[in-house]
Amino acid sequence: MNRWSYNAQNLFKLILFTALVAFRFSANAQQPANRLNYLDGEDPFYVGLNFPKLTTPQWVGEDGVDAVVTLGIDDMRDLSRYENFCRPILERLKEIDGRAPLSIFSNAITPTEPHLQKWLKEGVTLEAHTLNHPCPILGKRNFIPAKNTYHGSVDLLNNIENNIPVAFRTPCCDSQNTPSPRVFSELLMQNNSAGQFLEMDTSVFNIFTSEDKSLPRSLTIDNDGKSKFEKYVPFDSYVVTIKNYPYPYPVGNKIWEMPCMVPSDWEAQHLHGNSNPVTVEDWKAAIDATVIKQGVFNFVFHPHGWVSNEQMIDWIDHITKSHGKKVKFLNFKEARERLTKNLLGGQPLKDINGQDNGVRLLDLDNDGFMDVVIGNEHIQQTRLWNPKTQKWEISHFPFRIVQKDSKGNSEETGAKFGILQPNGYASVFISNKSIKGIWDFNGNTWTQNNTNIKGLELNKQMIQTSVNGQDNGIRLRDTNNDGICEIIISNFKDQGVFSWNKTEKKWIKLKFNLPKSVSITRKDGRDNGVRFVDINEDNYLDIIHSNEKRYSLHLFVPNPILGWRVGWSREVMSGQRSDAKAIPMIVRGGEHNNNGAWFHSRHLWVQNEDTAHLPNLVDRRSFEELLQGSIPLPKSPKESAKAIQLLPGYKVELMASEPLVLDPVAFEWDKEGRLWVAEMADYPLGLDNKGKAGGRIRILEDQNNDGRYDHSTVFLDSLPYPSGVMPWRDGALISAAPDILFAKDKNDDGKADEVRVLFTGFGQGNQQHRMNGFEYGLDNWIYGANGDSGGTIKSEKNNIPVNIRGRDFRFRPKTLEFQTQAGQTQFGRRRDDWGNWFGNSNYSLGWHYKYPEQYIRRNDKLIISNNRQHIGNYDRSHIIKFISKPLQRFNLVGAENHITAANSPTPYRDNLFGANSDQLLFISAPAYNVIRREILKPDGISFLSHRPEQAGSQEFIASKDSWFRPTMLKTGPDGALWIADFYRLVLEHPEWIPDDVEQKLKLRSGSDRGRLYRVYPTKSTPRDIPNLSNKTIPELVAALESSNGWKRDTAQQILVNQNDPSAVTHLEELLRETKNPKALLHALYALDGINKIRPNHLIIGLTNSHPGVREHAIRLSENLFKKNEVDPIEEALNQLVKDSNLRVRTQIAFSLGEWKSPTAGKLLVKLARDCSEAPDLQIAIASSAKGHSVKILKGILNQSINNSFSKLINNLLVLASDEATEKELKQLLNKIISDTKQIASWQVIAISDLIENSKEIDISKLDLVIDEQFINSLEAITNNIDLKVENRAAALRLMINLINKPQILNAILQKQLNPYSPNQLFDFAITKLSNTSPSIDALLVHWKSYSPNRKNRVLQHILNNEKKTIGLLKAIQNSQLQASDISTAFQQLLKQHTNETIKEQAKKYFGSQNPKRNQLIIERLPKVTELKGNSSSGETIFSLHCSACHKIGNLGNSYGPNLSALGDKTPHSILTAILNPNEAMEDRFNVYSLTTIEKTQYTGMIINESANGITLMDINGQQNKVLRSNIKKLSSLGRSLMPEGFEQVLSDQNLADLLALINTSSTPPKTFIGNKPKLLKEAQKGNIILSAATAEIYGDSLMFEEKYKNLGFWRSSNDRAAWTIETKRAGKFDIHLDWALNGSGNNNQMQLGLGQNKIIKKVSGTGSWDHYESEHIGTIQLEEGKQRVTIQALEPFKEFLMDLRSLELIRSSNVN
Prior knowledge:
Layout lengths: L2 H8 L5 H4 L47 E10 L2 H19 L4 E5 L8 H8 L1 E5 L15 H15 L8 E2 L12 H8 L11 E2 L3 E3 L9 H4 L20 E3 L5 E3 L3 E3 L2 E2 L3 H8 L4 H17 L2 E6 L7 H15 L3 E3 L2 H12 L15 E4 L8 E5 L4 E7 L4 E6 L5 E3 L5 E3 L3 E4 L6 E6 L4 E6 L4 E3 L8 E2 L2 E2 L3 E2 L2 E2 L2 E4 L8 E5 L4 E7 L4 E4 L20 E4 L8 E5 L3 E8 L9 E10 L20 E4 L2 E4 L12 E4 H5 L9 H6 L1 E3 L3 E8 L6 E6 L5 E5 L15 E7 L9 E9 L4 E5 L2 E6 L2 E6 L9 E9 L9 E5 L5 E4 L5 E5 L6 E2 L4 E4 L6 E4 L8 E2 L5 E5 L2 E6 L3 H4 L11 E3 L32 E5 L12 E6 L4 E10 L2 E5 L10 E3 L6 E6 L5 E5 L13 H4 L12 E7 ...
Parallel strand pairs: 1-2, 1-11, 1-12, 2-3, 4-5, 5-9, 6-7, 6-10, 73-78
Antiparallel strand pairs: 8-9, 13-14, 14-15, 15-16, 17-18, 19-20, 20-21, 21-22, 23-24, 25-26, 27-28, 28-29, 29-30, 31-32, 32-33, 33-34, 35-36, 36-37, 38-62, 39-65, 40-41, 41-42, 42-43, 44-45, 45-46, 46-47, 47-50, 48-49, 49-52, 50-51, 52-53, 54-55, 55-56, 56-57, 58-59, 59-60, 60-61, 60-62, 63-64, 64-65, ...
Helix pairs in contact: 3-10, 9-10, 16-17, 16-18, 17-19, 18-19, 19-21, 20-21, 21-24, 24-26, 25-27, 26-28, 27-28, 27-29, 28-30, 30-32, 31-32, 34-35, 36-38, 39-41, 39-42, 40-42
């Protein structure tokens, strides 16, 4: 592989936008009064477009010259090559004025080479480029080589006769981030041992952009509209650049920076190849721009063929022809001389000793041009540039800026420049033992006012800017943006901030200082790593501090808010250097203090010898990363509206805000067009933080008819956390747990006079998880969301309780009928125009509920494992693209963009949004201040979805305002999408907020605010909101034709509530005449709602061309089915069972269950015969099969069938076991199997189902031929490892059901209890053995050979039975088992057992649980955080202990919280979750104990509830489905499934490894062309190939090299490759490695993690990168199923680990 090509082309592709943002950080984006801050630092990148200019006329000393060109050729070692390339250029230069001004940046050359003297005489200078051209100069974690090669180069060039080098260029500065501030501070500003030094650098690149409006567009923009010069930036995060500043400027007051011009010849060839004519044209444009700007063009080129000398001469010709004598060619020595003579009055930046000469460049009079002040032992002078006269005006400067100490060394006197005058002119403050005062520049001279230092005292002593020549930590900064600097002192002894008081005419010490433990200078006066930077971009300077000991970030608070005082009181982060996520060091202490940090393109960047191994050679922190955790301030309604960003083509309007509306969480319009709003003002802990109810229902009205709400009335208040409202008849329905209320206004004053409880009993847990509503159904029911809190619901008319755990609900307000509904929604159960219901929960975008529960409920033996289809069915759909600033710690610290608070999945219900309006689904994500848009696509009877914007791109709506909290969404009567903005700082419930943070916060911040918005396409105009209250019947019926869903729903609701018989005629006319299928649908449901629907109406629907109409017409026919009055529509039904639309066929299958007629059975048979590829249709048939099961089975079995029918057959056989006679069972058996010698897997499953569900029937009477040959064939199927596991398991089941001899039975089952038996057979064998034997002995026969996973499976079966549990404890007592064999999880279960005897014995064997969980965390935390975690090892631990419930990436299951999406990933938070899992647990993760009628016990988490059954997941991840009819007892244990006690089995290093895994888990794999990670399944021949192309790639430098099909550049400690594999069964595998490594190797070691195994191997060299070798590196035991494989280098390691082509796992041939 080509290392250079990699470095130059492919390494850095991370942050295009931020790298190309115009650099205006220090110079342009800051407040005007802080324009002189650069004088206090050594930043090489501080200038920009608006920084004061240093034009060529100011320094060149030659009239008529507007621009200077320097030609600098790099990398000289071979003189002859440079002579050959440069000679034509030199001769062309001589033609101009007889000189050949060119500078050669040289490496190691022979100083006595005669040709050097020829060059020098011609005008060439020889400049420094290091001795050996290290790229980067700072690298290999060692500063000394950089020091030696730089200072050695300066020494070498000083030893060339007649040559004095003045300039330096950093190697590779045009291709890599090599010009670090550390290079400037610790090399360029220092002398070598001989006292030699340089005065110039030319390593920073200037880029002209179109932001400079003084330049013609043609000079900065190409014909394609793209930037002419930014295209040359070699990679996206190349950040050693400035923009639009083509002038010399000083760095650290000691070094001239002569910025190079983009492009260099390398940058040009990197973009479009060698000698491209486009390059020359762009150079011409650059010089033309330079002349306009009166700047310098410092040309970087090489003799390497990237540009020809003919092209350079062509460019020179252009200069002389176009600009003549306006352009002066100089070498760097001449440029330095002219700067010193003409600009600085003969005083260089550096004194003769190489130290500070007291020269400062600054714009004194704020006219946009640089001026000069000089204060040293030779001269004290002010030089003011007059741009009108083009002359320097010279006056006195009042004191020395530097002075000599007794040894002749220069020391600063402490002059601090800043803006202390309202006119913006400069001032200077100095205070030392010799001189004290503030001098103001008045435009001509400096004036001193003796009173203007009054008040600058601490402890009755005037503060000093310098003490014994050392910086005393005084800075002049405008902290409050009043245009005048404050004076700040911050050192190891003194702290203070002083502000000028105009009234008192003195300095007042303010009440705030720099944060604790932060000081600007150290005891020796050196830089302590404090920078004033506007990190949160609010125009106030924040403080970032980072050195070798500590780090912190504090944001400035301009006004007291949320408990934060004025000053730098908002701590975002702070800690010790050892912290995993510490801010990189700004200074590092020691001899070479500057650590190479700078701020650029909204990032902190650091480049030094310790970062050279990282991508782009730099460590970095974006401002977003730094701000994770900060608390933003609230915005006004207008400001917040402006902060909302929409996709192009859409508009947002603020429709209402405080005080008109406050705390809105839900809303709905009434028939008059008034907007009713539910306001949760009491969130989160009540008005008094003690639970005092304060929620409101408010009515908004537009009284002046201008289309906006202008009047509000509080209809009802003092409600406990209201979550929904729906205007209903003459009042409103309100959801406020524990009640659903109906309230109405009886005296027309707009306030509720009567409040009635319709339903009560809803759970009152976390307010975010309470019942909420409402949505009007097509079927005229009102639907509500469970909210995850459940409850047992009663009503005033119906005292029969309804348990809604795990399900949503619907009700009729008039009759108080109440029913559960399939699915459990957290907030906002919503439907589309066709009656499809959608819901979601925190971590899911949403799902569609496929099966109406009233159908599933009919067949009490039918358990639905999952009734919801997830939308967002594409990769990384859960990733949110937010643009707001994350909040401090409590709100998703370390957030990784995972959706965590999805709610209100809202189908759009109008046509204002264009052609695909009816496919749009909007989801709010208030935690990230965004609204997602999905496009739904039909998928069978459900939906898939995708983002039209593509995954990872801008969200439909995103706000920069972190207080923007979109809750409910709804299509308004006007066709726009309406949004309720709760507008709160704190969205999380306090139970999730760390105590230390909660103490600082006002949890109800924002309770006095609230907003309502609407969004619509810019090309559309929202309609007026209609008033339907005064419409006639014909007008209401006509409203059903509307495109607007609200209008149709409301018109239907009014018609149904009025129940006017005259409506029938108009509805019938609509049915006959309309071409609008939605209007027809509403007309049918309106007729149904007033009990006037007739067969002729239904026939219109049943025969309609639109499948949605046919589907609902079938549903509306159910009343006829129930009355057995089907004759009028039977012909239509016969056609519908053959309907081409799957949804129609599925609906008729559901609805036929309401018809107790043989004809229904016949129709179900017809449907069943053609349902092999339609699992949802099979569910519908099974739901309706009661009374028809035998008939349907016969119908299916009469045709040729396959495994795709097996699920339906299974469900039907369960019913048939109850419904069939002995004769019918015999007939079914004969149809299932007629030849026992030829038996398919579906037949084996069917026979097993029939026998298992027909316990009352004597098998011998079923005429099944059970001979030895049949049993042997079943056993052969069971043991055939080449068959599918489910087929083998079916055969085993059947054998067990047929054999009635316990001894033989146990022997067969025991065979499956081996390490290599598939899990399905193993689990079945354990279950059967556990059920048939009271002893645990049979379960423990192979105990010692079991993997930890297998042991846990056995333990789960033992603990499901109390007697066996006692037997387990006896086995431990008798030393048959060791107590250490029992995993932590099961120890915990035993110690919390409901049986006291078991509980006490368990405590005896396993020890009492440490009750002081929080103290335990405090003790372990420092030990864990001191260790470096290994994420690969973390995967092994995760697989063993966590993956049953939790998911990280592709590993594990999603039943518990997704660890990749954890918000707070701080070590404390994660340790709390591991060691104290019950501290803050959501109800949905509760553990339940379930006892069946047969006394089987299950313990686990409910992961699904349906009408007829519950699915519990145990601690192993095993799912147990139990019919409700078989549940004897079900109770919550009030704790998490995750056990306490992990501290006993997880070492500190284990915990550190888990922390590392969790903290890196949300980082997605890197993407490369040709690299496509996927699940790798074991092939038929038993091998799995893990190629580089299928690897997940993580880390700083590891990459997929498409050309070589390998993983290369494996050189960072966090580089890691991972694969997900799936084995067919457990077994041993040989591991083969295919790799290459240049040379003989570096003694590096790799760690290979496979499942729960590790292999550590030394990586040997293969001779070269092109020579690959394959080696067997070990044999390991793998479990059955999915597992992870990872490879990572072990530290320490040198250079490169290897190039990896593949791993191959080959199943060992000696294992079956």
